[in-house]
Amino acid sequence: MKQLQPINNSVPVEKVIPDNMAQLFLPLYLKHPAVLKLRDAGIIMAGISEASAGFRLRRTPDFLFALFTRSGCGEIVVDGDACELEAGSLYLAPAGREQLYFQKGAGNWRFLWFHLKPDAAFLQPPPPGAVTGRCGDSARLEEAMSGFAAETVRSMRSLVSSDEQPPGSFYSDSMSLAESLRSFHLEVDASNQNAEALAGLYAELIFGLLDRAFLSLLARYDGDERSDCLDRLWSRVIAELGREWPLEEMASIVHMSIPTLIRQVKKRYDATPMQMLYHLRLKRAVQLLLSSRLPVTAIAREIGYGSVSSFSTAFRAEYGVTPRDYRRRQPGGGPFS
């Protein structure tokens, strides 16, 4: 059976997995059509865990970590900030921050978890820090995850009876697939009629439920937070207008993908990022023409134009006159060129 290459590079620095802890890792390492749907959506790893007393894991991941608590209680600490996780809670932790999570209380802690690519389209832009909220769909999500695992295996039934295991570097603490299915009472001996199609439908349901949960969770960032991010971007650009500003760098500053940056700028300003840069450069040129004695050649360099001719062409297109004529027409305009 062909397997996808491991892409999860996070190595736990502290890991305690009790022997009686049940875990179902979704088989996202397989080259199966339903698996590829989830991988293409940005889901690297996912599973259902029933954590018993003593479970704890500490790491600094290179992925976003989403955790849905189904029952019991756990706690997660990210950058020293602790959050108790009760039934119905949803927690999204950022990439690149140390996190510790563990079981609390007398009973087992049952939770669903997802490792997500930082550039997953349905999480753009990712929040700058950890976010917590509620999710009313966690039961349906668990059913979809269980159905996905069962139907994927039914369509590849030889997996359960073979000695093949997930890649150790990918799911290093995973049970065997057969043990995982048995621990969650998932039967795969039934007919495999339509199993591949059903696995695909379960994959779509998983993505749909995740998308809805995250849209609700991140709604608070759709307004002022994103506007603040863009304000900070333009302040940075204005401070360094004399250099090139590729889209990749602009998107990185606001923690957005390039398509999301373009969409957010269009939504707020009815312009593209490059049009905004063009506007800011010419606005600065007007300020310098009116308030300074700098020659036009120096102004062109200061706002990022490589030649006076290209600067003059852009300025004339915007204001109908050349920079020199604009300066001369203003009260007190001098002969500087």
UniProtKB/TrEMBL annotation:
| Organism domain of life | Bacteria
This protein is called what? Helix-turn-helix domain-containing protein
PANTHER family tied to this protein: HTH-TYPE TRANSCRIPTIONAL ACTIVATOR RHAS, HTH-TYPE TRANSCRIPTIONAL ACTIVATOR RHAS-RELATED
HTH araC/xylS-type domain: which residues? 231-329
Query: Which InterPro entries does the UniProt entry name for this protein?
Result: AraC_XylS_family_regulators, Homeodomain-like_sf, HTH-like, HTH_AraC, HTH_AraC-typ_CS, Tscrpt_reg_AraC-type_HTH
Q: Which UniProt keywords apply?
A: Activator, Cytoplasm, DNA-binding, Transcription, Transcription regulation
Q: Which SMART domains match?
A: HTH_ARAC
Q: Name one GO molecular function term.
A: sequence-specific DNA binding
* Source lineage: Bacteria, Pseudomonadati, Lentisphaerota, Lentisphaeria, Victivallales
